[in-house]
Design goal:
The complex is a heterodimer.
Chain A: H1 4-17, E1 21-24, H2 28-41, E2 46-49, H3 53-57, H4 60-66, E3 70-73, H5 76-83, H6 96-107, H7 115-132, E4 135-139, E5 142-144, E6 149-154, H8 158-164, E7 168-174, E8 178-179, H9 182-195, E9 204-209, E10 230-236
Parallel strand pairs in A: 1-10, 2-3, 2-4, 4-7, 5-8, 7-10
Antiparallel strand pairs in A: 5-6, 6-9
Chain B: H1 2-10, H2 12-17, H3 28-34, H4 39-55, H5 57-71, E1 74-78, H6 81-94, E2 99-102, H7 106-110, H8 113-119, E3 123-126, H9 129-137, H10 153-164, H11 172-189, E4 192-195, E5 199-201, E6 206-211, H12 215-221, E7 225-231, E8 235-236, H13 239-254, E9 261-265, E10 270-271, E11 280-281, E12 287-293, H14 297-303, H15 317-321, H16 325-328, H17 339-349, H18 352-360, H19 367-371, H20 378-393, H21 397-407, H22 410-423, E13 433-434, H23 442-447, E14 450-451, E15 475-479, H24 482-486, H25 489-501, E16 505-507, H26 517-521, H27 525-538, E17 546-549, H28 552-565, H29 571-580, E18 583-584, H30 586-593, E19 606-609, H31 613-619, H32 623-631, E20 635-636, H33 651-655, H34 657-673, E21 678-681, H35 684-696, E22 702-705, H36 706-713
The chains are: A alpha/beta, B alpha/beta.
The structure holds iron/sulfur cluster (SF4).
């Protein structure tokens, strides 16, 4: 197996070449500060966030909130936990009735405790958050060194929206979660799918490399297209 | 067609963005190899995946359907465009869809889905910026990857200003900003998203789309209904197979290792986020439909001869390499798919009749084949297409006259040309160049100054079969080829001289005729076979050890096409094989005959070398001529696009002299930019084209065959 340092170097080189800014954080505090500083420097007031073990692990949401920035969880489970005042990353054990109450309060509508009703309201409410947000934060399930790519598995697709809609996008990723090649990535995907039980393939598996670009307008080769203006990747070690 | 070619070539805006760019230094393939990409290995892998997938298609379709259905998608199999369009329209109407956002897809352009839906009163918004520009201009995409690469900034600014109701400057950043703002709202408001698919994976029922702009992610994730419209040929068995395609597709389209976003979509959005109620529809689409479209693909698969066209991954590499495409751009072809591969696809999607014009533009330079990541032999399919149309309607009378009655009979050709050499007198200038001709050849002579036909062709200059007593030295039969025989007999003489000095015995077997290439590439297989037999017979005379020609087009015929022409002809096939084994290029043979000769001291004169298409890509010979020249003390200054076509291309010069000229002008620019006094090459027709073109420019640069250069030196 290739040395982690080597993989990180290669990942960094390719991600950088394709337009991302890679930051190797010294530790949890450093990573939190990097994101906070970035948000503050760009005047970001609203952030949408999808699920990320790394972000949850370092208390990123709480850190940003403490600095007065509004962070909205977009994973439905996480959003409910957030509404219930629970810590980021925790699995909520609320009943449907309690969830209905939470969502009703947040959206200002009286909602029946039915799945479809609640999801319709959640969709509408969260949709607006993506549009308003100045920054999107997501995790990557793992990276690919060969190409500088981040890979994300999801069933909801909320991670895709948080990735492409806001003006600035930040990915939180563990250094150890970098595989060497595209082929390794496929094996990893297969393992992840198996581990998730049921064996059903996630609705979305997205490879994301560098910053979005277009060559469609003459004279602006490799210019930013319709996605974020800035791509940042924060790499964090295990320790 | 000639009119469309003329239009494209005289469209200043178009030319400023197409031909104006000049020749790239090296081809895409070379560039990749230089940056350490294993192009050959990766393309072999794609080829394997594609061959196996298409062979196994019926099973893959079933597997895909089962998996996709399990994922919660709805799969619809559409016979043709009408069927597919209708399905999408019905779905849209049932869901009360008012606005659709669509990401780029060649297939939906092929079946004109957008137009179909719009006619039914549904708004459809293209979201790829290039496609949007094309939509605003009410045109078809000009290129399968860059749909609007032909538009100038000013044109784009006008279109976008009109669409957004704002006065936009022709400034790239301003236009991008305007696109972003305008398109964003559409995604939010849309009731349906439509995409194509670059790959579909049978194993998991997955649609894979590659995008760079992020529009693909938004189109497939924001609206409540998502429809992927994909051709059957995009099916592969598993994820590893898809990866093989991903690797080169990204490289060939955008020069990237991977496109910015690669989305693997396997079903509608779902969430387990509400406790106790797993599998609810999530924040993305609540429905996913996959429409698999046939529209001629099954026919292509069954055709055998054209099955390869299904291996196309629509990367556009062949278009970038095509001298015709880069001169006249995509609209000239008249149908949705451009270039050589486009002609083949058109034949099956629109009909053989419709494919004739696009196929007629091909110069046969093989640049497409050289860069195709799926190793598709596009030129061979073009030849087969032409053969089919000859079968169906026969040749035009002009070609028939030329191909059948004259080229087939060497004596008649000789006679005709002899007469020609007298007739041409009034048009020939003192240096034996022809600069003006009466119609119908007027336009050809306007493009290049033509050589006059020699009153003493090669076959009357070189002696016949040597006597047996010289048996010890290798015997080299010269095959002249039409151009060298009549226009440049001195070329053949030079080859004879240089080879003689190496100790070989060159001679000229009688009874040779045209190699048959003009007939073969025009699709007249029967005539070509007759000529093949004539030449096989002629070149057996004196039992040569080698056969040399100064026309690589002829060499490729003798070495390769005669084998396929005689495939069903028993004894003839064996004789063709024997012949093929003896054919050598001049430089190759000289090196073979004189191994270990020391390098001569450096010479003053700086030269550049032009790779003839048929020599480099046809026969794989490009190192040998350079090695020989360097050994002789010449310094070679490589020009940009040394292996780019000179524009001669056989029939094309006659049918589309303007096109041939446009291709040549770029070559001439590259030659002049190299700052040399001599262009060396290995092909009589190339010499004719380049000499003629440089003469028109009144250039002092001389064009010469390497044999002439060497013969003159000693
Ligand atoms: S024919 Fe080959 S090079 Fe041309 S678009 Fe298809 S795959 Fe690409």
């Amino acid at each position: 197996m290739a040395d982690i340092e080597e993989l990180v170097e290669q990942f960094k080189a390719d991600a950088t070449r394709t337009g991302a800014v890679v930051y190797e954080a010294e530790g949890a505090g450093d990573a939190r500060d990097y994101v906070l500083k970035l948000a503050q420097e760009r005047g970001v007031r609203h952030i949408v966030k999808s699920k990320s073990a790394v972000a949850e692990g370092i208390g990123l949401r709480e850190h940003l909130e403490k600095a007065g920035i509004e962070v909205r969880e977009t994973d439905i489970g996480q959003w409910i936990a957030q509404l219930a005042g629970e810590e980021a990353g925790s699995e909520t054990d609320k009943t449907v009735e309690q969830v209905a109450e939470l969502i009703s309060r947040e959206t200002g509508q009286k909602l029946e405790p039915e799945g479809d009703v609640l999801m319709a309201a959640a969709r509408r409410f969260l949709r607006q958050s993506y549009i308003n947000a100045g920054m999107g934060i997501s995790g990557a399930d793992f990276g690919i060194a060969e190409t500088g790519t981040m890979v994300n598995l999801s069933n909801d697709g909320n991670d895709r929206l948080a990735t492409v809609l806001p003006l600035i996008h930040v990915t939180m990723m563990k250094r150890e979660d970098i595989v060497a090649t595209l082929s390794d990535a496929i094996s990893r995907i297969k393992t992840l799918v198996e581990e998730s039980g049921g064996g059903q393939i996630p609705s979305y598996i997205t490879y994301h490399t560098g910053r979005n670009t277009t060559g469609d307008i003459r004279g602006a080769l490799m210019a930013r297209a319709q996605g974020p203006e800035e791509e940042h990747i924060v790499l964090l070690g295990n320790a | 067609m000639a009119k469309r070619v003329h239009q494209a070539l005289t469209d200043e805006d178009l030319q400023s963005v197409m031909g104006g760019r000049g020749l790239p230094r090296i081809s895409l393939r070379q560039r990749m190899q230089m940056t350490g990409v294993d192009f050959d290995g990766l393309s072999r892998e794609i080829r394997r995946v594609k061959e196996e997938s298409i062979a196994d298609l019926p099973r893959l379709v079933e597997q895909f359907k089962a998996a996709a259905t399990r994922n919660g998608s709805v799969v619809y199999e559409a016979r043709d465009g009408e069927d597919a369009n209708n399905y999408v329209l019905r779905l849209a109407q049932e869901r009360d869809v008012k606005l659709i956002v669509k990401s780029k897809s060649m297939l939906t352009e092929e079946i004109e889905l957008r137009q179909y839906l719009e006619k039914a009163g549904i708004s459809v918004q293209e979201t790829d910026i290039g496609e949007w520009i094309v939509q605003l201009a009410n045109e078809k995409p000009i290129h399968m990857v860059g749909p609007a690469i032909h538009k100038t900034l000013k044109q784009v600014a006008e279109l976008m200003s009109r669409a957004t109701g704002r006065e936009l400057e022709p400034e790239p950043q301003a236009l991008l900003q305007a696109s972003r703002e305008a398109l964003r709202q559409y995604y939010i408001d849309a009731d349906m998203g439509i995409s194509g698919g670059n790959i579909i994976i049978a194993e998991t029922g997955t649609v894979v789309i590659l995008t760079n702009e992020a529009n693909g992610c938004m189109t497939t994730t924001l609206p409540p209904v998502y429809v992927a419209v994909v051709g059957y040929e995009k099916l592969v068995p598993g994820w590893e197979d898809a990866a093989a395609i991903l690797r080169l597709l990204s490289r060939c389209t955008m020069g990237m290792k991977l496109t910015v976003y690669v989305s693997h979509i396997s079903g509608p959005s779902r969430t387990d986020g509400i406790p106790g109620i797993p599998g609810l529809p999530g924040q993305g689409p609540q429905e996913m439909h996959v429409v698999l479209v046939d529209n001629g693909r099954q026919l292509m698969r069954d055709s055998g001869d054209f099955r390869e066209a299904l291996y196309c991954i629509k990367c556009g590499a062949c278009l970038g390499a095509c001298p015709v495409f880069t001169s006249v751009a995509g609209h000239t072809y008249g149908y949705i798919y451009q270039g050589g591969i486009g002609a083949v696809l058109t034949a099956f999607m629109n009909g053989m009749e419709q494919a004739k014009d696009p196929a007629s533009l091909c110069l046969g330079c093989m640049a497409c084949k050289d860069v195709c990541p799926a190793c598709i032999d596009i030129p061979a399919m073009i030849t087969r297409l032409r053969a089919r149309s000859v079968d169906e309607d026969g040749l035009s009378w002009k070609s028939r006259l030329a191909l059948r009655s004259i080229l087939k009979h060497p004596a008649r050709l000789a006679g005709a040309l002899k007469i020609g050499s007298y007739l041409q007198k009034p048009f020939t200038d003192e240096d034996s160049m022809i600069r003006k001709l009466p119609s119908p050849l007027k336009s050809v002579a306007e493009t290049i100054s033509l050589p006059s036909i020699s009153p003493r062709p090669l076959h009357s200059r070189i002696k016949g079969t040597p006597s047996r007593d010289k048996k010890a030295s290798p015997r080299v039969a010269l095959y002249a080829g039409c151009v060298a025989d009549y226009a440049y007999p001195e070329l053949g003489e030079a080859v004879g001289k240089v080879l003689g000095e190496t100790g070989a015995v060159p001679y000229y077997p009688g009874g040779q005729s045209c190699c048959g290439a003009p007939a073969y590439f025009a699709g007249d297989v029967e005539t070509a076979l007759n000529m093949a037999k004539t030449n096989i017979f002629a070149l057996e005379e004196g039992d040569p050890d080698y056969i040399v020609t100064v026309c690589p087009g002829c060499a490729a015929m003798l070495k390769k096409e005669y084998l396929s022409l005689t495939a069903g002809e028993g004894e003839w096939r064996k004789r063709a094989e024997a012949l093929a084994g003896k054919v050598r290029d001049f430089s190759q043979l000289v090196l073979e005959m004189t191994p270990g000769v020391e390098k001569k001291p450096a010479r003053e004169s700086k030269i550049t070398y032009h790779d003839p298409c048929h020599l480099k890509r046809g026969l794989g010979i490009y190192a040998e001529p350079r090695e020989l020249l360097e050994r002789e003390g010449y310094e070679i200054v490589e020009m940009n696009g040394a292996d780019a076509c000179c524009g001669f291309g056989g029939e094309t010069v006659l049918n589309y002299p303007e096109l041939s000229n446009s291709v040549m002008q770029r070559k001439l620019n590259a030659i002049e930019a190299a700052g040399v006094d001599t262009v060396v090459t290995s092909c009589a027709p190339c010499i004719m084209q380049l000499r003629g073109g440089l003469d028109k420019r009144q250039s002092k640069i001389r064009v010469i065959h390497s044999a002439e250069l060497l013969a003159g030196d000693n």
